[in-house]
Sequence to fold (146 residues):
Amino acid sequence: MQEPEYTTETKSKETTIPDINNQTGSITKLQPPVQSQEQWMKYGQQISGFLGTLPDYLGNFFNQYKQPIVSLGLVITTIVAVKVLLAVLDSLNDIPLVAPTFELIGIGYSAWFVYRYLLKASTRQELTGEITTLKSQVIGKDTSES
Fold:
């Protein structure tokens, strides 16, 4: 049994592509349509106008929201600083004998503080005076008046 022969003619790619170059050795340049150049010019003008007003817009925005921006920046900076500090302390704890040494230093300082300020009534009054002075320096007003 013979298979039927199918003779289909396919169009070659050469016939579907328009003939741009009429002469051998010459290159024809295709020009983009004029409308797209006008659109690009329009987009360019819009972008340049936006970039021209951007410094004024950002300056007004910063002046209007200065306090929240500074507060947000301080909060973010504090969070980053705490994370870095915790990472440094965690890496220090991995070093042998450093963690017990820090614990001994902390216990020693606590014992000195109790001996220096908390055992006698006169030294407790001195500590209260120092705390009051520090509080008035931080707050900015005299707290002994109230």
In short: Residues 55 and 61 are 10 Å apart (CA to CA). DSSP finds five helices and no strands in the chain. The radius of gyration is 40 Å.
